[in-house]
Design brief:
This protein is an alpha/beta fold. The chain contains eight helices and seven strands. About 40% of the residues lie in helices and about 20% in strands. The termini are far apart.
Length: about 210
């Protein structure tokens, strides 16, 4: 918890308890279905929770914001963001049923009333969202194709509605086909751990 509180000292007691409770929940599930590698599990807070929360540094979500997490896997970045922003609403999706089963159990155990999870493909989702978040599920141009038409045209955040995408490495070639110019935020500007040196939040406005 020290790593999270270091960067987010304003957390309420309930939020601190929810973040702390994540570790044993994922340790238990990981012993059953090998959701996260052993190395990543040893660095769970840094590699998964804090990494997810880099999005919170780029764009805090306002009350009643609608956020879609595509390809959530074990619940990242959606679950940490749902804890961080209890008044926003999060819809976590993945096409793999066993992963969604884990996410649904974690949501229930953490008593996250603002969060739901479903096994469904992004193309099948109906609705408008202020932001669509994800963590490196595919090349960004392909991802844009999955979620086109699902972004609300009504803006009330500092950033215009769009995609907030977690990815690392050299992205110049990958981003070249995009029609809109993305903004790249270096996560190392927010967090000092070595793990984040090559990690980025890519923001792509969609309306």
């Amino acid at each position: 918890m020290d790593q999270i509180i270091k960067y987010f000292p304003e957390l309420s007691q309930r939020q601190r308890e929810q973040f702390a409770a994540m570790v044993p929940l994922y340790e238990d599930w990981n012993s059953k279905i090998n959701l996260i590698s052993r190395k990543d599990m040893d660095n769970f807070v840094e590699h998964h929770v804090l990494h997810s929360l880099a999005i919170a540094k780029v764009q805090p979500f306002k009350s009643m914001a609608e956020v879609l997490d595509v390809g959530t896997g074990g619940g990242f970045p959606g679950i940490p963001l749902a804890i961080m922003f209890p008044d926003a609403r999060f819809y976590l999706i993945d096409s793999i049923g066993k992963k969604i089963k884990v996410v649904q159990d974690v949501i229930e155990k953490l008593d996250l009333k603002n969060c739901r999870a479903e096994q469904i493909r992004a193309e099948q989702v109906v609705g408008d969202f202020d932001f669509i978040v994800s963590r490196a599920v595919t090349a960004l141009p392909e991802f844009v194709g999955w979620v086109r038409g699902k972004v609300s045209k009504t803006n009330y955040h500092k950033l215009r509605n769009g995609i907030l995408y977690l990815k690392g490495g050299d992205l110049e070639e990958e981003l070249r086909p995009l029609k809109r110019h993305p903004r790249i935020y270096e996560i190392s500007d927010f967090f000092e751990e070595e793990f984040f040196e090559t990690k980025k939040v890519i923001y792509l406005p969609m309306c």
